[in-house]
Design a protein that fits this description.
With 333 residues, the chain is an alpha/beta fold. It is built from twelve helices and nine strands. It has two domains: 165 residues, Glucose-6-phosphate isomerase like protein, domain 1 (Rossmann fold); 133 residues, Glucose-6-phosphate isomerase like protein, domain 1 (Rossmann fold), CATH 3.40.50.
Length: 333
């Protein structure tokens, strides 16, 4: 434990333990925030950790059969969808993300309806100065760890705009569920990290829970400072799978199984595991707890955090800082 504290200088472990509390705070900052008008879709513009919430919302809508369309924008310019009766969410945790500020400038120039989500910086200054609707996200952690704040705030704003049913009670109940599940997820994450140490992890999931596989990959990159990759079933059975004929390095495949997955997708996972074993490749099937979409999404999110956290410790890496990202930003100036 002492060695853990020496490596984890900003106590990321405690942030992960406290994560379930974020939903209530997110709902609070989103309360009363709305944009007037009739909208057919939502365009979420953001980068990095500030954009992950869009991926999770898309999976939530898909599994709950909610017809509202979400367009994800990770660019310097707005996509065509942003101009077609779309509510524009401008998301930057730091408030200083170059690409997102460029998108905001374009949206204001075109007089598009916007709602801001930020913990401060230039984005918060502009929204405050122009008296535009802004959900002020609590500051003090890395953007990739603020998913609960963003999810609570964005779903509340969507409900305020009558684009989405109010799920506040479900999110508050989710806090209790995750608090009870978290210790078990931490233990499981530590075991998985031990299993994949010194190997390159590849994370698979179904299309319906693709955001979780993507977030696992990103957290392993940023927390453990090591490469990782991801893909989805059933599409990978039509192309990527063939690439395992001649792997050029040492990999370990982690396939995430959710209770809401299509039975044929789960069968594909099991058969893929059998087929790859013939080539000497190990694929671990991981059953994610949770009966509801929210429980599944965020149990998967938490387990991925623990895997990347303990993998970072195994590599003697402080999981919090992302020095290469900061160095690159300086090079751009």
């Amino acid at each position: 434990m002492e060695n853990q504290k020496q490596i984890d200088k900003k106590n990321l472990r405690q942030i992960i333990l406290d994560f379930p509390k974020q939903f209530a705070e997110g709902l609070s900052v989103g309360s009363g925030i709305k944009q007037e008008g009739k909208f057919n879709s939502v365009t979420i513009s953001g980068m990095g950790g500030s954009a992950l919430i869009g991926d999770m919302l898309k999976n939530y809508f898909l599994n709950e059969e909610i017809a509202l369309s979400i367009c994800q924008n990770r660019s310097y310019k707005l996509p065509p969808e942003a101009f077609e009766k779309s509510l524009n969410f401008i998301s930057s945790y730091s408030g200083n993300t170059e690409e997102t500020l460029a998108v905001l400038a374009e949206a204001l120039e075109k007089n598009l309806p916007v709602v801001g989500f930020s913990a401060g910086g230039e984005l918060a200054r502009i929204f405050t100065e122009k008296k535009l609707p802004l959900a002020f996200i609590p500051s003090g952690i890395e953007p990739r760890l603020a998913t609960g704040y963003f999810f609570g705030a964005m779903t509340k704003v969507l409900a305020n705009c009558q684009l989405f049913p109010d799920i506040s009670s479900k999110l508050l109940a989710l806090e209790s569920y995750l608090d009870n599940t978290n210790p078990e997820l931490e233990n499981q994450g530590q075991l998985i990290a031990q299993k994949i140490k010194s190997l390159t992890p590849v994370i698979y999931a179904s299309e319906n829970f693709s955001s979780v596989a993507k977030i696992w990959k990103i957290n392993i990159n940023e927390n453990a400072k090591t490469p990782a990759f991801w893909n989805v079933f059933p599409e990978l059975n039509h192309n990527e799978m063939v690439g395992w004929t001649l792997p050029q390095s040492k990999f370990h495949i982690l396939s995430l199984i959710f209770q809401k997955d299509h039975p044929r997708v789960i069968e594909r996972m099991r058969l893929t595991k059998e087929l790859l074993a013939v080539n000497g490749l190990e694929m671990t099937l991981i059953e994610i707890p949770g009966t509801s979409t929210l429980e599944s999404l965020f149990s998967g999110w938490l387990l991925g955090e623990w895997v990347s956290y303990y993998l970072a410790l195994a590599y003697d890496q402080d999981p919090t800082p992302v020095r290469m990202v900061e160095e690159f930003k300086k090079m751009l100036t």
